[in-house]
Amino acid sequence: MRYLPLTEADRRSMLEAIGVPSVDELFRDVPEAARLSGPIKGLSNHMGELEVDRALSAMAGKNLPAGSVPSFLGAGAYRHHIPATVDHLVQRGEFLTAYTPYQPEVSQGTLQVLFEFQTQVSLLTGMDVANASMYDGATACAEAVMMANRVTRRKRAVLSGGLHPHYRDTTTTDARFIGFETVVMPPAPTGGEDLLAEVDGDTSCVVVQNPDVFGHVRDYTELGRACQAKGALLIVVVTEAVSLGLLTPPGEMGADIVAAEGQSLGNALNFGGPYVGLFAVKEKLVRQMPGRLCGQTVDADGRRGFVLTLSTREQHIRREKATSNICTNSGLCALAFSIHLSLLGEEGFTRLAEINHAKAVQLADKLAGVKGVEIVNGSFFNEFTVKLPKPAAEVVEALAQRGILGGVPVSRLFGGGLDDLLIVAATETNTESDMDAFATALAEVL
Amino acid sequence: MSMNNQGRPTGIQNTDSAVPETVTGNRGLQIEEPLIFEQDSAGRCGVDLPEVPTVGSRLGAVKPRGRIGLPGLAEPQVVRHYTRLSQKNYAIDSGLYPLGSCTMKHNPRLNEKMARLPGFADVHPLQPESTVQGALELMAELGRWLATLTGMAAVTLAPAAGAHGEMCGIMAIRSAHDAKGDKGRTKILVPESAHGTNPATAAACGYAVEAIPATEDGRVDLEALKAKLGPDVAGLMLTNPNTCGLFERDIITIAEAVHAAGAYFYCDGANFNAIVGRVRPADLGIDVMHINLHKTFSTPHGGGGPGSGPVVFAESLAPFVPVPYVVQDKDGAFRLVEQAGDGPAFGRMKAFHGQMGMFVRALAYMMSHGADGLRQVANDAVLNANYLLARLQDVMTPSFDGPCMHECLFDDRFLKGTGVTTLDIAKALIDEGFHPMTMYFPLVVHGALLIEPTETESKASLDQFVTALRALAERAKSGDVAYFQGAPRLTPRRRLDETAAARKPVLRWTPAVEPETVAAE
Ligand SMILES: Cc1ncc(COP(=O)(O)O)c(C=O)c1O
């Protein structure tokens, strides 16, 4: 076994040092009835690299990589070009094979990365402070709601109909088991919704998304003010981090908490995970935050250094009184996010956002020219909704047969209903000929 | 160019080894690195992007965003920045990382390669099912391995890490009680030795947490447990092997008592590495258990994550497996069930279908070992830990009698009266070139030192660790307190002031002078 360094001779001499005749003796506390006498049946035995590579490559070969065809899927996961540098640096063993920086003297690399990551996320969202990552955008959203419940000592969350259904469901799952109320607004693919009417004296927070799941760009400044007046927090969700290069940041709209998905920067699609949840708040809420926080300090020689801090919020110190049960987070995905953003810088990030928007405008114009297709959105960033004369799920399947990944049917996200709506995204990776191929194929299958 | 030896000294003239102060603050291969924000030059960029196509804006009425404040660096600067930072980290790739309870084993690079195949890495989670049959097959196959290794009836791959898996398991337990109309169960029992995530999870799910004491031999006190079981108890959360590195000998009796009281048995499977291939948790009476793929199945810890925390369910809880999950139709096609509907399943717990990138790595790891190799993993992990216990027990104080499982626990009695603490030992180990063990956990012994070597350490590596730790224990007993309190001395930073960090938190960089914002306020 290539991963096991002990030789038979090592094992014998170690057993001797321990003073037992065999390794079985070390398992003597296991109840006899449950001991297995040999390898478990029904599973293959060990294999070499070549054999494993062959077997898994065969499985991978049965999938259609999004990059191999014109692809226009978004709805919470976006295909962007990731500079080669990102994955190279992420694979440095010193980052890849370390764990949570519990021993800061030998973890300054990870810690400085986290400090920079927290700063980048704060800047992007326009918030005061960000944590060192959550699992993903959806769990960040649910944690934001629970945090709002703690902060306001209220138990009623209002969820916009423009919130990504997976984020909504992650939050309502928690609501069911943890015991708080959620007011779920119906999906509003074409227009606004009266969230304010739902805010009362028991409301802990209003959760909105920008751009919303249908792609509409929203201004929540008014809503933020109204929430404040009623003592509720405004939680703004962002599923496409690149949009923050162009749109008013949630902090400027009065968000108290931002819960976002960071996958777009540095992280591949990966069939849905691992991704990286971004979590940012206003200064005064810091001590109610979930998750790890890295802070600046000095060492014994007075030099600047970094440590994990404010851990009295966390499970390993506070146990049942912790702000969250999260322990392992999305460290390496946060690193990838941070490297990609460092490469882009101010100029690159802004331009990337502009290109994304322009590509989506081009695509919308091309699709609007297809007979029977109607663009639903008045505004959008890099994603919008189209209305089709046929069920979107069928159209998407027919497009896939023609080698085009043509978007996400709204019915798939919402579990039925709104069958004729399709969510379509464009990024810098889409060429004009991709778009033409899409429009042509769409005309054929409608 | 070839190296010219002409006129160049090739011998060594000066053997003075005192460490000099350098002008730069750098120390040879250890290079000081400023924050990226301190390397900013406006207009510099590490990517080349095309011109923005000229089209009208459809952003609507939002005001354009002002300057963000991101620094501009060219690619070589970025590469150097992160390379230098990486060199300030200790990692499994560099040496022994015996962080108890975390299973810091070797991370095979084949797994990285497999996870990066475009057929896995470049697949969108919402592509039509017909275009992702291989991805769904991989999930089904991983689920089959996990179910077979644990003897369980059902699996969910959705949870993002161990703590998330705990949440999932406790939600399933609540669902099962709810389905029976049993609303009176308000408590979860958790041993004192449990990891912090256990009580945090139970409390987050709305349960009162009741602690169960440990016995003299480091196991759950069965009589105390029985006394607490009753119609108000929803379940027991027990780690096995437990966080003292011991197998819960009475586990079958414990399970029977829990079931007799109408409660369910949750097992924290973070320590599955000790028993994989040797015991199936289902045969111990466990109803539900999470598995940390980032521990037992070697997906890299990444400086804090990502992880993956699949949960396995016995028949008793199988109907409550949350969405999404993969099913295979009669014609062999794989399908994703994404909506909970009206059935007993709950969910969802996160966006999309779970940590796919981790699934690929874990399956590559399992297939590489196979059923035979995984059993050897447990054997060697347990052998290595017991070897350390045997070699250290005369100079340190083991908290409990052996044999231990995959990790061995010491407390600080051997330091009594020396003025040296567990923390000091940890910091001195750093100077010897080792990552410290887990300190001050579990809470059931004083000044805990929890050592988990894993099966991927060689005997030579263990022997060197033993030599270092024995020498430190002797040194502590000799009264050399100053040596310990000054440690570490050979690291990029020496001890850091955590009190100052928490008192006045600085959680982000801020420019000396705020950059002008274009956005009108
Ligand atoms: C015993 C035990 N339980 C639970 C956990 C939580 O797992 P995770 O960090 O993956 O959430 C850990 C690990 O940190 C652990 O050691």
TrEMBL record, chain A:
The keyword Endoplasmic reticulum does not apply. It catalyses: N(6)-[(R)-lipoyl]-L-lysyl-[glycine-cleavage complex H protein] + glycine + H(+) = N(6)-[(R)-S(8)-aminomethyldihydrolipoyl]-L-lysyl-[glycine-cleavage complex H protein] + CO2. SUPFAM superfamilies: PLP-dependent transferases. Keywords: Oxidoreductase. Residues 1-438 form the Glycine cleavage system P-protein N-terminal domain. One of its GO terms (molecular function) is glycine dehydrogenase (decarboxylating) activity. InterPro entries: GcvPA (IPR023010), GDC-P_N (IPR049315), GDC_P (IPR020581), PyrdxlP-dep_Trfase (IPR015424), PyrdxlP-dep_Trfase_major (IPR015421), PyrdxlP-dep_Trfase_small (IPR015422). Its EC number is 1.4.4.2. GO terms for biological process: glycine decarboxylation via glycine cleavage system; nucleoside metabolic process. The glycine cleavage system is composed of four proteins: P, T, L and H. In this organism, the P 'protein' is a heterodimer of two subunits. Belongs to the GcvP family. N-terminal subunit subfamily. HAMAP family: GcvPA (MF_00712). The glycine cleavage system catalyzes the degradation of glycine. The P protein binds the alpha-amino group of glycine through its pyridoxal phosphate cofactor; CO(2) is released and the remaining methylamine moiety is then transferred to the lipoamide cofactor of the H protein. This is Probable glycine dehydrogenase (decarboxylating) subunit 1. The gene is gcvPA.
TrEMBL record, chain B:
Keywords: Oxidoreductase, Pyridoxal phosphate. GO terms for cellular component: cytosol; glycine cleavage complex. Residues 1-21 are annotated as: Disordered. One of its GO terms (molecular function) is glycine binding. Residues 183-302 form the Aminotransferase class V domain. Residues 379-475 form the Glycine dehydrogenase C-terminal domain. InterPro entries: Aminotrans_V_dom (IPR000192), GDC-P_C (IPR049316), GDC_P (IPR020581), PyrdxlP-dep_Trfase (IPR015424), PyrdxlP-dep_Trfase_major (IPR015421), PyrdxlP-dep_Trfase_small (IPR015422). GO terms for biological process: glycine decarboxylation via glycine cleavage system. It comes from the Bacteria. It holds the Pfam family GcvP2_C. Its EC number is 1.4.4.2. It catalyses: N(6)-[(R)-lipoyl]-L-lysyl-[glycine-cleavage complex H protein] + glycine + H(+) = N(6)-[(R)-S(8)-aminomethyldihydrolipoyl]-L-lysyl-[glycine-cleavage complex H protein] + CO2. NCBIfam families: PRK04366.1. The glycine cleavage system catalyzes the degradation of glycine. The P protein binds the alpha-amino group of glycine through its pyridoxal phosphate cofactor; CO(2) is released and the remaining methylamine moiety is then transferred to the lipoamide cofactor of the H protein. This is glycine dehydrogenase (aminomethyl-transferring). It comes from Azospirillum brasilense.
